[in-house]
Amino acid sequence: xxxxxxxxxxxxxxxxxxxxxxxxxxxxxxxxxxxxxxxxxxxxxxxxxxxxxxxxxxxxxxxxxxxxxxxxxxxxxxxxxxxxxxxxxxxxxxxxxxxxxxxxxxxxxxxxxxxxxxxxxxxxxxxxxxxxxxxxxxxxxxxxxxxxxxxxxxxxxxxxxxxxxxxxxxxxxxxxxxxxxxxxxxxxxxxxxxxxxxxxxxxxxxxxxxxxxxxxxxxxxxxxxxxxxxxxxxxxxxxxxxxxxxxxxxxxxxxxxxxxxxxxxxxxxxxxxxxxxxxxxxxxxxxxxxxxxxxxxxxxxxxxxxxxxxxxxxxxxxxxxxxxxxxxxxxxxxxxxxxxxxxxxxxxxxxxxxxxxxxxxxxxxxxxx
Length: 369
Known about the structure:
By secondary structure, this protein is an all-alpha fold. The protein folds into 3 domains: 19-212, no CATH class; 215-321; 329-368, no CATH class. The chain has helices at residues 4-20, 43-56, 64-76, 80-91, 100-105, 135-146, 153-169, 178-188, 196-209, 216-224, 231-242, 254-268, 271-285, 290-311, 329-346, 352-368; strands spanning 29-32, 35-38. Strands 1-2 form a two-stranded antiparallel ribbon. A hairpin with a 2-residue loop joins β1 and β2 (35-38). The chain is elongated and about 105 Å long. The termini are far apart. Residues 1-27 are annotated as: Disordered.
């Protein structure tokens, strides 16, 4: 069996050796603004050359080259907020042609010399679920997961700010951003999995800015954050989740979704929904699954309690209504006496007007006798 960690270290050593020997690089070049730029030089130097060219031609300020270069330069200069803004402005150009050197940067064909602060930019350092993702997501992933603990959450705040500003001031159709929103959420939401508040904020932001339908992961967390607060809404989101597109690569939240939703149907006494979700879970895990059996036991216990309440003799739904005219005056007086004597203990308090009427009736009865 190959030791994955040692293989990763070996690849890192090979890249460092390659960076230390720039003469081994090819003479690759890149044409930008009618100027030939070398790509076998330090990446920071290349990015500085690109920025200089944009100063000569401001029309290129929205090019992927410019945003990428700013992203790198700001990182090297430790201007992290500007770095994050540039990273997401680069992502907004995802439908434009990708510069060839950015594609090569994330492969073994990279010819740039990377500084120590940029040495983590490599395919080995991206998350497993992004192997088939667009190169911009892979690049951003390297930075998000390399940041110091607590700093990576800042990427999500910046992303929301950039998206909101772009949608308001861009000429692109609004649905242009849906795929970016959903893929960003799919690829990175697990970074916030231990921070409920920030994950909830990101989830609501993505949902509110979509023009079309959401994804399975998005609806799963919309449902999750409604549990116990609004179980009916959680159940509705869960049903939508099952019928939504799954952007994940071979994974889903369906098992957790079923368990959460079954518990919500029990709390809401929605037994038709309970049966439906139990069937969905059973078809996925089999009838002898321990968690399925536990949920079935919880459901049967709750159903028995609900039936007992429904069939109880003092349940108002089981008592035939009568009119006051059919009740004898003496019986009403007895009831009022009981309420007067015990009503406080039962949480029932008759109004003064009631007892004024009671005394009046009692006097009339005494007179008639």
